[in-house]
Amino acid sequence: RQPSKAAVQRLAKAAAQRAAGVRPTSAPSPPLPPLEGLEIHPKNGRNLLPRSELFVHQGNYNKLMEHYAGEGGLKIHNNRSFPSPDMRILRRYNFSSCAVVGNSGSLLNSTFGAAIDSHNVVVRINQAPPGLPDNRYKRHVGTKTTFRLINTRWTGKYGITNYVDEGKLPLEQSVTVVVTRARPHLYDSFVQTLKKVRSDVRHATPS
User: Fold this and answer.
1) What segment(s) does the record annotate as region Disordered (predicted)?
2) Is there a domain that residue 130 lies in?
């Protein structure tokens, strides 16, 4: 089946724009739906994780690390790096809405920046860059970052001192980094790097 004349013209126009270094324009993103009516009411059940066990802390560290016993030196050097058992890390954040921002390039095809920043809390995934007041990303992804959620690969990257100290990876002032699925030695390296070069950054890891 041969493509229609209109389809061929669209493809030719897009190819010419790419060759000229012009990014195809996109229509403004539609407004986000209202938050009213989207409340979440978690049920209490025997199989749900207690709130006090959501993150690794000094009180549950030894119990949660038991399954790494056969992996030799894979152990956090100092469990005092973790939050205290009273879970002050959770009480620090009281919010009614949040936005979660990924790191896909397709975000540049939308203009949700203002909507993202309107939320109480903004979570960015891995190395997703925030917008800055003077750069073009602001209108696409907003400028606010409350949490940065990183996986094991990016925990290793953020554990390299010069990557963090020289600004090669985005790490906002006083942000809280939540580390997921990372091996203990990578988390340990990450924590030690923060202590040396970014003591303003808080960290936690889900249990």
Assistant:
1) 1-35
2) yes
